Amino acid sequence: MALEHLLPAHLRAARLRHRILAAMVALLVLTHGGALVGMQLVDDRARELLTAHRLGPAMAAAVEAADRAVLDGIAAGPALALSGLPDLSVSWQGPGTPTVPAGWVMEGVADAPRPVFVAVQRALLSVHSARAQTLAESLSLVAEDTAAQLRDARVYVQLAGGGWLEFASPRFWRPRTTPFEMVLAGLAAFGLALGLLLWLPGRLVRPLESLAEQATRPHDRLHPRPLPEDGPEEVASLARAFNQARNALRDLMEGRTHLLAAISHDLRTPATRLRLRAEYVDDDALRAKMMADIDEMAAMVTATLEFLGDDVLREEVEVVAFASLLQSLCDDYADTGSPVTYHEPPPLQFAAVRTIFGGMERSDRFEQARQLRLAGRPSSLRRAFANLIDNAIKYGECATVSVDADAVEIVVDVCDEGPGIPEAEIANVFKPFVRLEGSRNRKTGGSGLGLSIVKSIVEAHQGRIELSNRASGGLRVRVTLPRML
Q1: CB-based contacts of 180: which residues, under 8 Å, 6+ apart?
Q2: What is the pTM of this model?
Q3: Which of 51, 183, 188, 421 minimizes the number of CB atoms within 10 Å of its CB?
Q4: Using CA atoms, how far apart are residues 52 and 173, in angstroms rounded to an integer?
């Protein structure tokens, strides 16, 4: 069932990767297309500047036609305006100074055969001298310089009667982008595309990274927090499938655990009846053997119930004075004559250094006892370290417990002086019912659940447990616990 839910989610994740690649290709095409368009605009502008001189003869012809019309008796006025000229619009203004749109700048052209003015928006760039043999040649030069202004422009030429012809060219005298501006625009477009290429994959992949972080984050194994089912559709579907698969697996494990716990619990009833019946056996030797077997079976049932029980995870988390808990446990063993030694955590020590503000190098040592508080389940922790001390006494003749901590975690070492464990078997000793001692005698080997219970408790506290053989002989069990769950 879980795989059936996860398969479509993985397919959607694959489609997500394809979408990322498609987005990157699309951005590259967009950037390339923008560069081609920019190059085309540059080519069009160059061609327009090369052909702007063609306006000169047309303007000269319009001026001559207006002069003839005045000589033929047509009154000066709007009737002199012409239409239908290619790339030009012509209007008439009365004598005096030509009227230009508000905010425009006007400048006269020197050395022209007759008065000529050029008006443009904003600042006016330099206009070359229009010195030429004819009016057409002079106006051709003016047309080229006006086209080079790269903005809206007007050219005013005075008629013989004192009026003015106003020339405008929507094609040549209009705002255009300069080469420098085009380069800046291209760089900006490239930078934007590059930024999108760097940001978009991260934006699309970040929900998957967050999902992976949530899935691998330590949490309560009995009641794991569900993954957030939000973000893109593919990620939400993957999280939903993961939650369903984890819930199904949790239900399966809980059902099996409860079944085994029920069987182990039910075994206590026939064990009790066997004990009662064994009491009536007349043969003392046989009765002793039967009672020993019953005791061993009862101990195994009890250990199994402890291992399968949920008490470790159901116990409430509270702030624990860990050093005191560990010391009281070791004192209990010492009071019964067990060879257990406890080493308190070393005192805090701080090193002060000289700074630019003064001070001197010194070392401060605090001799007060350290409580080493952490957030945990006290009964479970006590049971775990009791199992470790029992193993050290049973297999290593003695137990030496030492503890140290920093601001993040607490480290406890339980060492013995026994033969240690073969390196190849260290990974197996945490498995349930695995015993390195092959006699199956509880007096020498136990039930094989002690370290499994310890590992379960340590992992429930989001800690870790490590076994290693000491160079001087014996086994070291190191438990590392975070101070905050």
Answers
A1: none
A2: 0.49
A3: 188
A4: 9
